[in-house]
Amino acid sequence: MKNDRRTAIRNLTLLLGSTMTIMAGATIAPSLPQMSEVFAGHPHSDLLVKLVLTMPALFIAIISPVSGLIMDKFGRKRVVIFSVALYGIAGTTGLYVDSLNGIIVGRALLGVAVAGTMTGFTTLIGDFFRGEGLNRFMGYSMAFSGFGGVFFLVMGGILADVGWRYPFMIYAIAFLILPLTIFGLREPVIEKNDDEAKSVPILKKLQPGKLALIYFLAFSGMTIFYLIPVQTPYHLKELGVVSNTKIGSAIAMMTLTSSILTMHYKRLKKRLSHQWILALTYFFMSIGYRVMGLAVSYQNAVLGLVITAFGLAYFVVNLYVWLISIIPPSFRGRAVGALSASFFLGQFMSPIFTQPVIVKFGIGGNFVAGGMVLAIFSLCFLVYSLLKVFRPG
Questions:
Q1: CA distance 50 to 57
Q2: Other C-beta atoms within 10 Å of 73: how many?
Q3: What is the CA radius of gyration of the chain?
């Protein structure tokens, strides 16, 4: 009975920790237009305000592999505790820092914290679960993250209507999660098998070709996906939406739909390979982006976001499960850290890569262009799956 209670607390801690990743960026998305007005006199403010949203991603990309290496060498729990504490401190800096540069520094420190929390909690899930249990709990974890994202996005929109600083208050939730990480998590025992202990062909064992593909898909997919939190507020403003609450609710609707679907990842994985799931993921996202780009009303835009959710629901969880399934336990922290880095480097680069497209074709044209790229990815995985170039799993 006592062990059951400990397991329940551990699992709850892992689920709550998973919400900290999505909270890092999307929470303040509804505030971006207001911040653009407040800092209009700052040089290059249009780009810098968008980097307030994506700056954590750069430092997550830089620090995640380091966090993974430290975890593999010295244990998971210490890294997670430090990261959760830093998360609360750095995340709330927007409440009291007056300069745009100062806010960006705070966001950079938040990125350092998220590198530890995302890599740490995901690695711990890989340590504690196997097989179908891993598929199921990863689905729950991503769904829980999504449900948290719905709450944070809606609250971010409501608080942004009060003032652009107030959404930064939400990051203080880390101080509620901190005691659970201290008392609710145990350090897993990682046993090396004979091949790993003898360092027998590690490069071959790590399957570098598959790893490179997974990391590339994470980077490119997130570069395109992050058009939504970065550009949707501006797109909706162009469509005449003035309420930050409505902006936050629109993105939250997509997140809610995605979260509900993610809970069924285990069932989908029973029937389809990782590659088939990617073909479907890119297909639905490509349709959703086209609808978003051609939207002429708030309702059209929300429809595009919901369609996008049918693909987004399985994109991140599918890549994490695929990676964890091919990585030896003693290298899991580094591999997961590198995947986290790939995701968040894509987030950081998103406004930089897409800004020239926006200048030439507008925000709507940017979504249409992203949809075309996603359609190409979908077609590639469809052809590869039909030809059985990739082996399932």
A1: 12
A2: 10
A3: 20
How much is the pLDDT for 190? Answer: 66
Residue type at 275 in one-letter notation: Q
HSE, side-chain direction, 13 A CA sphere, residue 285: 31
Does residue 67 lie in a domain region?
yes
In CATH, what number is assigned to the domain containing residue 170? 1.20.1250.20
Residues of the domain holding 349: 2-185+201-386
Residue 192 lies inside a defined structural domain of this protein: no
pLDDT(199) > 60: no
- Counting every residue written for the chain, the total comes to 393
Residue with tokens 């249009």, as numbered in its chain: 46
- As given in the structure block, the two tokens for residue 166 are 């107030």
- pLDDT at position 142: 79
- Output the CA–CA distances (angstroms, integers) from residue 214 to 274, 282, 388, in the order listed: 11, 14, 18
More reliable by pLDDT, 372 or 97: 372
Mean pLDDT of 73-77: 84
Q: What tokens were used for 300?
A: 């059209």
